[in-house]
Write a structure and sequence with these properties.
The protein has 127 residues and is mainly β. The chain has one domain (4-125). Helix content is 0%, strand content 44%. It has no helices and ten strands. It has strands at residues 4-8, 18-23, 29-34, 46-47, 64-69, 72-79, 90-96, 100-105, 112-116, 121-125. The strands form three sheets. Strands 1-2-3-4 form a four-stranded antiparallel β-sheet, with no helix packed on it. A four-stranded antiparallel β-sheet has the order 5-6-7-8, with no helix packed on it. The protein has a two-stranded antiparallel sheet with strand order 9-10. A hairpin with a 3-residue loop joins strand 7 and strand 8. The two termini are 22 Å apart.
């Protein structure tokens, strides 16, 4: 099942105020800009990998979570770390707008949540 997460940004124009993030079958992240009102979605406002791009690092069956830290929007997922042979752990990582590993996790636990206030952000996951 594809993981999804959405961020509503009231500062954006209505036709692009919702960013809908999803994981792809190639373990990458895609985003579609959606209308925040009852109007039609904008034309061609989706961004994602092409067939010729490198494979991604989002662990299959990972959840996505999104939030904001001081206005900086982030998407978090369980990712597959670089390892010799088969990995024995997952990483909890920021996957957008940049990649940054944050913590290690067991292979089985891919549940993630993000919460934020005006000045802080928290990432929750099972260990």
């Amino acid at each position: 099942m594809t993981a999804v997460s959405a961020i509503f940004d009231p500062a954006m124009p209505d036709e692009t105020s919702i960013s809908l993030f999803s994981s792809t079958s190639t373990a990458q992240l895609s985003v579609a800009l959606k209308n925040g009102t009852d109007g039609p979605d904008p034309d061609v406002k989706a961004f994602g990998p092409s067939e010729s791009d490198y494979g991604g690092v989002i662990a299959q069956q990972s959840q996505l979570a999104s939030g904001s830290f001081r206005g900086f929007r982030v998407v978090v997922a369980a990712t597959v770390p670089r390892a010799e042979g088969r990995p024995t752990t997952n990483q909890i990582s920021i996957v957008s707008p940049v990649y940054q590993g944050l913590a290690s996790n067991t292979l089985e636990n891919k549940k993630i949540a993000v919460s934020n206030s005006d000045t802080s952000a928290w990432i929750y996951f099972l260990e």
